Sequence to fold (493 residues):
Amino acid sequence: MEHSADHDGEAARLLAGDATTWEALYERVHPAMLAYADRRLGSTEDARDAVSEAMTRAVSSVERMADLDLVPDAWLFGILRHVVIDQQRRNYRRRDLPVHRPIEDPEALETLVIEGEQDAVRLAFSRLSDSDRELLELRVVAGLNSDDVASLLGMKSGAVRMAQVRALNRLRSLMVEIEGVGS
Amino acid sequence: MKEMLDDDALLATLGAALAPEPSSPTAGQMAALHAALDARSGLISAAAPDAVIVPLGPSAGATGSRSARIHRLRHPVAVLVGVAVLATSGVAAAGVAMDTMPGPARHVAYSIGLPVTSPALESARATLGALEATLQGHDRVAVLDLTALLRTQLAALSDSDRAQIEPAAGRLLALANAFLEGEAASGIPQNPIPPVTGEGTHADTGNADNAGDAETSGSSRPSRGTDSPATGSPESGEGSGDASVPPMDHGSQTPQDDTTGDSGTPEGATTDSQGGSGDPTSGSPADSGSSDTTDSPLAPHELGPGSHSG
Fold:
């Protein structure tokens, strides 16, 4: 996997335990990580805990990043993904929190006023399957390329690209459906 | 949306729609990060200079190279656990192979079917060793105790275990009996505990347990005397000839001898004439099995002096 020199330099500093680099990385990825965790856990508080836990794990396992040949952002999202899955399992056992909180209630489309394209996209996105949502989120929220997403999901790059095409087609169909209802 | 967006445009639109709100780590999160960094730096400094610390973090994929897997094996904790497992299993295997294990471990190993000597046999062997040492030290009371203990242990052994220890036990019990009889006959400081050889004691008290006691039972009961396979055996002969046991002085009549005489059992003569063979007979596991199981064994010292009424 090709990485830029910036990424390689950052990875080296992270490996060396440079606190400034770690802080900068944390600042940079925090919004995306929090959004990802919040959407999946349905609780901002749990999402913050998950992000914090992911960062702590990242520090203690930074050598693994080089082993897996991942850029720091992808590696962090990989850890966060596991933390979120663990938390979802705990939530499921407790049954006091929803495993997934949809962005909007898909059953109440008739009552919604679609104000713009982004609303339609969000609604359509909320009606996708978990796997489609996760793949697209890693691509557009975390900003990872297909290779990194493939590494995180344990898939091949080609399979990720095909899955992305299918997910986007479904999203497109849902958007047409929603715009038809909203218009 | 009048016209269909292509994939790139749709991705861009989706990215804009899902764009996270600006946020920063809280002070607590930053503190946690620094704590983790501090912990890691401490771990690095504590580790050996050439140790590469690769904590076992969550798997983010299955694409690790072979060198990466080898690297992970060098994680200090994993290495320590591996060494501990190897050492423990190695010691356990060596213990089983050499049959040298502490008591509790032996119990566990034996109970799960590992090929180790049974705890009961090991205990009997230990008693045997102690009895041998005690005989050399001429400690009469201890000899009495250990003799009784050994007989009890022999009676509790399985047939296969008993077969392993029977020759040595028979020889040593013969020595012990000879020693005790010698002590009794010599008239030297007598222990308040009556000698095991006090056949009269058994008869007088009518205590079946004592009647079944080792040294005398062979002679006091003709049937046992004849049944005894060890009577006159070379083993017994060896035992009686052992230099570590004081020679018996049958010429001196001690109260015990009188008692024996009163009982009408020519015990001492019989034993002596047979070269101490009567003792191993009773001391043999088979014998103790028959006598002790039928006559619930009482340790010789459990007989009080008052039991001698003759």
